Amino acid sequence: MITVRVTTLRRTFVGAILFVALLVSVPLLTLAFGRVPTTGDWRTASHRSAGLAPEPALHRAAVVQVYAARTFGWRGAFAVHTWLVAKPAAADQYTRYEVIGWYARSGHSTVSVTQPRVPDAEWFSATPRLLRDLRGADAEAVIGKLASALASYPHADTYRAWPGPNSNTFLAHLARAIPELRLTLPATAIGKDYLPTGQVFVRTPSGTGYQASIAGLLGVIAGGDEGFELNVLGLVTGIDFLHPALKVPGVGRVPFGD
After folding, report:
1. Residue range 188-214: average pLDDT?
2. Is the pLDDT score of 106 beyond 70?
3. What is the number of structural domains in the chain?
4. What pTM did the predictor assign?
5. Are 237 and 230 in contact (CB under 8 A)?
6. 104: left (phi over 0), alpha (psi -120 to 50) or beta
7. Spatial separation of the C-alpha atoms in residues 257 and 184, rounded to whole Å
């Protein structure tokens, strides 16, 4: 009996190791085939407009947009950086909301609120993808709750690229605090499943389901917008039923791509 149990435990352990290795192998392949550039200097990286944000002078209605772009260097094979921009009606410029990790090194809040010249800029040469685009009254409803959502972010003095809290943890918090945003973060947004200390079971960022997560390292999601997701060591795999696709670590959606 003892021998059988030991054998079963050994097989389970080996199976778990092989599963994690499989999850990690896909992002590593994106590096091997050059899908994510690993060379370059962050000081000379591009921050050009992606042409996704409407010009304030031409679009006077309120606008809220959420972007995601691959992180700089080898980490881009695994994860994206996310941020939100907002422009009230008749405003002449956008305000950008995000978490910047290196701010924590100098003892400052990681939450950055700026009014950039280019709200949809490339993230260190990585072209951003538009995750959410709200206009008019829908955007105003989100803008009206941004101040309180910012004030309630519990990790303003802490940053960890993995497993969180990071920029994706921040966007997930905004989404839960502002249901009108109805934001679904991509599988590559590592850190989105990192919850405040003591919380294990919460609503998903989109508000269409629920998730359980232990320190962002192990968890599961079931939601109308998110579909089904399994998080193992921050790497997410799953399936989107609403817009049929598989979710693969490092790649995002298959066959449509992240």
Report:
1. 96
2. yes
3. 1
4. 0.90
5. yes
6. alpha
7. 15
